Amino acid sequence: MADIMIVTHNLTKQYNGKTVVNSVNLEIERGAIVGLVGQNGAGKTTLIRMLTGLVQPTSGSFSLLNGAVRRDNDVAAIVERPSIYTNLSAMDNLIAQCQLLGITADKEYLAKTLALVGLEDAPKKPAKNFSLGMKQRLAIAMTLVGRPQLLLLDEPTNGLDPQGIFDMREVFVNLNRELGVTILVSSHILSELGKFATEFYIMDKGKILERVTAEQLREVASKRVRLKVDDVDKTTEALKQYGKITVTDGDVDLYADVPITQIMLTLAKEGVNVLSIQQTADELEEYYINLIKRERQAKIELSKGGKPL
Amino acid sequence: MINVLRLEFFRLKKSKLFWILLGVTALLPVISALATTLILSVIDAITSSGSEMSGALEQFRSAVTTSIMSSLGMIGYGATLLPLITASVVLSKEFADGTMRNAILANKKRSELYFAYVTVAFTVGAAYMSAFMMTSLIIIAPIYGFGDLTAGQIVSAIFCSLALGLLSIAFAQSCVCMFLFAVRKQWATILFPILITLLVPDIMQTAIILITTILGFQGDTLSYTAMSWIPFYNASLFNAGAIDGALVGKIALYDLLFTAVFTVSGYFTFEKADLK
């Protein structure tokens, strides 16, 4: 039986009658790095807040760590902004976290933890003088201090420079590989998330639209070719022999493992001028945008047909 | 709860505000005594210079002295206000910085958090009150003496003052905790308990005067005894030579009652609240 670290059953949150998270069902296995994808207001933060216990669900339930008895340091999280004691130094922040978790504040271990997030030069500097990026690094160090089994991260790279983003990605991946830490991470920087998450839940308007693994994503993306042409109808007709075709805003997407030269030859025979042709570069971003477009298109069509949404 | 207490006491130990205001509280009796002595000697020097004092001058001297003594009596409020400020600033910073979330994430129950904070707030109050009393007894009392009180009266006065002072502070700190957890805003946690501490006794007294005047009550309705149920009104004993055990007990009971009501009422809003 799989070791499930997070499971939710119809988890719902409403604020003043407005549904922010709508019957969400997640199932995340131990050792996974799961990306929670969605635009601002999609419900990602509220979902993570519910999992952390900060926000009470309106209905539904969830269970962490396969229902096992939870120790103080088993779950750690960063939710939106860094939760650090601004009047204390970086080292004192880690000591404070150790006090809270009931673990020994070994200075050597804490110095290593600071080094892990690139704060080895600022152990005694008051956190109030830190830049946003440094505060975020310190917050990450505080989550790591207890060596958690489960990390819940809401926009953890907010405020970090490109090097910082790269460094944090390395930290998360190493934690996952070496210590088997399960990570649920939300971000709107999809290109970044796509580089290290092994699975994705795509959210829109409080609902989970789709669950897709990184493998499935790569498979779909590598088989997709996007074309801009002067005659969409002729193109659709000519290419349908190769596989599924969708048309979005005048762009023709062909889901098939066909060489580009063969597509060009087929279209040339039909007299279609190809304005541009490309294989998807950013799998997750493309996938997400298309999924959202399709969902919204479907809703519009449903509403035009007079059917209930 | 032990771990939350360890964390909060660690934060307190590292807080400059805690140590500075503790020092100021300890110095309050000294400041009060020095100011009293200085002002009295200045008034004496002005009003009794040269010739015999006239009746009008004597009246003026008496009025000024009473007014100044009354103002200096407010210094005693500092022993209640300063721990209130310390607790509200230090504890509400947890909400301002968002670090309260760390404790929730560390699997601490909200009741554990709440009562750990209440314990810290009461401890801060007790530390400040003890510092205030220690200075009063060690530095001030030997210099100024206890007037014509007997040894027994002195011991009673000390214990009663300490007990009532601690109860007053406990009530003030329960206000801090109530606003801290009910409103969860730093400014409200600092401002409202101060306003209550400063204004409520006088507001209540005025209200009672108005009501009794309108209803035409006579006698000792407005006496010190009648006000025994108002927290802070009896934070100290005005007449140490006439300590009435029953009255002190009554004041203590009312203080405890108000403290319990404030402490418990803060919890219910926090128990199910969504935290930022």
Keywords:
heterodimer, A: 309 residues, Rossmann fold, Alpha-Beta Plaits, four-stranded antiparallel beta sheet, 10 helices, 38% helix, B: 276 residues, mainly alpha, globular
Shape of chain B: globular
Total strands of chain A: the figure is: 14
Based on CA inertia axes, which overall geometry of chain A fits? elongated
User: What is the gyration radius of chain A calculated from CA atoms?
Assistant: 23 Å
User: What value does the average pLDDT of chain A take?
Assistant: 83
Structural class assignment of chain B: mainly alpha
- Count of the domains of chain A: 2
What count of structural domains of chain B? 1
CATH superfamily of the largest domain in chain A: P-loop containing nucleotide triphosphate hydrolases
As an assembly, this protein is: heterodimer
Order of helices and strands of chain B: HHHHHHHHH
- Mean pLDDT across every amino acid position of chain B: 76
Distinct helical segment count of chain A: 10
Radius of gyration of chain B: 22 Å
- Strand fraction band of chain B? under 5%
Spatial separation of the terminal alpha carbons of chain B: 22 Å
SSE blueprint:
The complex is a heterodimer of chains A (309) and B (276).
Chain A: E1 4-15, E2 18-24, E3 27-29, E4 33-37, H1 44-52, E5 59-64, E6 75-78, H2 90-101, H3 107-116, H4 132-144, E7 150-154, H5 162-179, E8 182-187, H6 190-196, E9 199-204, E10 207-213, H7 214-222, E11 224-229, H8 232-239, E12 244-248, E13 251-255, H9 260-269, E14 274-279, H10 283-304
Parallel strand pairs in A: 4-8, 4-9, 6-7, 7-8
Antiparallel strand pairs in A: 1-2, 1-3, 1-5, 9-10, 11-13, 11-14, 12-13
Helix pairs in contact in A: 2-3, 7-10
Chain B: H1 2-14, H2 16-47, H3 55-73, H4 78-97, H5 100-105, H6 110-144, H7 151-183, H8 186-215, H9 245-271
